[in-house]
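so my prof wants the structure for this chain in the tokens format not the other one, which i didnt know existed until like an hour ago. anyway here's the sequence
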Amino acid sequence: MCSKPVIIVGNGGHARVLIEILLMKKKQILGYTAPTEEQNPYHIAYLGTDEMILQYEPERIELVNAIGSIFTTKMRANIFTFFKLKGYRFCTIVHPSAIVSNTAVLGEGVQIMAGAIIQPFVRIGDNTIINTSASIDHDCYIGDHCHIAPGCVLSGSVTVGKGTHIGTGTNIIQNIKIGKNVIIGAGSLVLRNIYDDKKVYGSPAKEVSE
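here's what i got, hopefully its the right format
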């Protein structure tokens, strides 16, 4: 969790969820950045565009990546990479109601939302979202910049490649390997391995055209 004052990067729905967690844990929020000032129900201060962050020394603050992911994680990944190269650090955030095994390994900037379950020996890469009530069973590996959407269930020993988006309510059976930059549509049932850069949907999940 954050150990320094934080700046929220973004101001959409995902930002509101993260702000609530930070407030629950009594963390100091300096404000948020976004292209334009927008109404914020938590009355968090608008600091300006993302470039304003560069006015703060990296060792004095931490960042919260509040850019969500609907079909792609590219924008979220770009934000993370840009500020990491400038020397900034991103908070790892875990909702108090989430269950996370002591043997799980969480990368920098991982966000685990309410009701999520992370079982033993799971490894989660940097900047990945495990969203509301998702269940990640034993020995799974999830790469950097992924989004496991609300209600997903990953059985044991599933591998998920970097930059993959797994849609709401998807179920994946044990030992499946999913490649990089894959998009899995909501409500899918994954019974077979999926190669890099594919888009799949359905029960059972099948490749679909763009």
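also thought this was worth mentioning. The longest strand covers residues 29-33.
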